Amino acid sequence: MQRYDVVIAGAGIAGSGLATVLARAGKQVLLLEKTRQFRDVVRGEWIAPWGVVEAHCTGLYPVLAGVSSHHLPFHVEYGEGIDPAEADGQKLDLRSFLPGVPGPLAIGHPQACQALFDAAVAAGAEAVRGVEGLEVEAGPRPRVRYAVDGQPFEAEARLVVGADGRNSQVRKQLGVELFEDEPHHLFAGLLIDGVPEWPEDLESMGTEGSVQYFVFPLGGGRHRLYLSYGYEQKGRFSGEEGPQRFLEAFRLPSVPGSEAIARGRVAGPCHSVPNQSTWTDSPVREGAVLIGDAAGFNDPIVGQGLSISLRDVRIVSELLLGSDRWTPELFAPYAEERAERMRRLRFAARLDSVIHAEFGPEARERKLRFREARAKNPLIGMALAGVMIGPELLPAEAFTEEAWQAAVGV
Ligand SMILES: Cc1cc2nc3c(=O)[nH]c(=O)nc-3n(C[C@H](O)[C@H](O)[C@H](O)COP(=O)(O)OP(=O)(O)OC[C@H]3O[C@@H](n4cnc5c(N)ncnc54)[C@H](O)[C@@H]3O)c2cc1C
Predict the structure, then answer these.
(1) 3-state class of 235 per DSSP?
(2) Mean pLDDT value across the chain
């Protein structure tokens, strides 16, 4: 039986990030990962400015910057009913949101996971890949059991951390209930190469016809694309022809450069997920804590999961390193802050979904009315700024029924 300070299940951004911070501070860490190689599973590749701040605070930014320092300085919304020249003139300067942050960071997800995993090992964490049949026991003497190549192992720790993603086994084994809102639409992603025509410093989002599109340049002619589409169109981008149909759907007359995108070379799988947010009453149990998607995740429409994970890493590591008494009470501030953070981000994601991911003439008119109203009064739909600067920096009034009505009822 091996003994550790902390056993972390799942070596994604959240798990590998926390393992790095704790191992650097001298803690004995065991990091357990199911996969033998990080692959493109269509996850986040856009870290919001507030997530970049968290990366700096945890000391993880240099690790991520070793993979990519491709910050995106500009954002433009094209789409139906919007004149492209006018849209270009209203381009958002993403460098202006938080001091010292030159815009969101665009970064390959598998590469970021690998870099953080390597950093954890370099800092002294013991890391195991190919982990199967993970079993977690919380309580006063937390322990894990798992197998690798059929050989069983058992380890004891002062704390077990579940960082095993949206379908977390650890969460289920701890009996932590996951609440979820109704899926609003579907969300598909695809990586493409070979499109040097699209400006590398310009991210773009907008709605046309039956899709909401996103383009996030990663540098070198590579782009991460997403499409939101109606829930009733399940299967639209699935199967062998899915990636090609996805690219065809990118031929959007109101989006300059979308033809070049549609001619791009498929560089990864095409997956869809339902757009919804989930949350828990508390991600804490005696001897165990959940972080990242395992603790409940935000609807990917506003791209917050990586930033959420990095904040979880910061808060949980600060609590662990600031006290020797690792009781559930120690994590109360984390549970409280996370609950409100996720509530606010859920509000922002739902607002964005109603404005940009509903389709048809009525939805189009609502989007254009919202756009016009916001240009006159930036306080309308203010919650959406929270996905850039961090939801806690906005006043509570930005997330009320009145704020919702002011944005959607315009
Ligand atoms: C389509 C889509 C687009 C997104 N876009 C964005 C975006 O642009 N920006 C953004 O910030 N966020 C985005 N997100 C969210 C973001 O990807 C996630 O929030 C983030 O990856 C969560 O990190 P994590 O480490 O908690 O979980 P994961 O990244 O899921 O990592 C969990 C790890 O645990 C491992 N694991 C799972 N089960 C076990 C087990 N039983 N034993 C051991 N290991 C296990 C997995 O193999 C994996 O490596 C998006 C999500 C989706 C679905």
Answers:
(1) coil
(2) 97
